[in-house]
Amino acid sequence: MLTDSKGFSGFSVDDLDAAKRFYGEILGLAITERAMGLIGIRIAPDTDVLVYPKGDAHRPATFTVLNFPVADIDATVDELTARGVEFVRYEGFAQDAKGIARGPEGPAIAWFTDPAGNVLAVLEQ
């Protein structure tokens, strides 16, 4: 029934202008204005994520809502840190000085949050 559908993901923020600045200026992603005050964040040539405002009703996701595979996680973390991104440290994960978790059970990964508190990650392919 949905096998031919071009599904998409979305999440809320409490401040759409802050989200536009963060995703557009800090992360360098293309932002498109959508109907009803929504924005699209271009994460791949033909893929957007929908971001919608919820104001005071917003509750940040406590799980990773968006992952960015990268070729060189150290260079990416260094660049994001230089742009003001702070990486999250989680108990139970051995993370290095940059906040990157490296282990045999998965790829090297580092988590950070957007201005609304939603969890994002970069991970090495």
Structure, described:
- With 125 residues, the chain is of the alpha+beta class.
- The protein has a single domain (10-124), classed as 2,3-Dihydroxybiphenyl 1,2-Dioxygenase, domain 1.
- Helices cover 17% and strands 38% of the residues.
- The chain has helices spanning 16-26, 73-82, and strands spanning 10-13, 30-33, 39-44, 47-53, 64-70, 87-88, 101-103, 106-113, 119-124.
Strand-helix topology:
Layout: E1 10-13, H1 16-26, E2 30-33, E3 39-44, E4 47-53, E5 64-70, H2 73-82, E6 87-88, E7 101-103, E8 106-113, E9 119-124
Q: Could you list some keywords that capture this structure?
A:
single chain, 125 residues, alpha+beta, 2,3-Dihydroxybiphenyl 1,2-Dioxygenase, domain 1, five-stranded mixed beta sheet, 2 helices, 9 strands, 17% helix
| CATH fold-level topology | 2,3-Dihydroxybiphenyl 1,2-Dioxygenase, domain 1
Measured as a percent range, the helix fraction is: 10-25%
Work out the strand percent: 35-45%
The tally of strands reads: 9
How many domain units? Answer: 1
CATH class: Alpha Beta
Helix-strand category: alpha+beta
Q: Measured on Cα atoms, how large is the radius of gyration?
A: 15 Å
Mean pLDDT: 93
Under CATH, the homologous superfamily reads 2,3-Dihydroxybiphenyl 1,2-Dioxygenase, domain 1
Helical stretch tally: 2
Q: What's the CATH architecture?
A: Roll
Low-confidence residue ranges:
none
Biggest sheet, in brief?
A: 5 strands, mixed
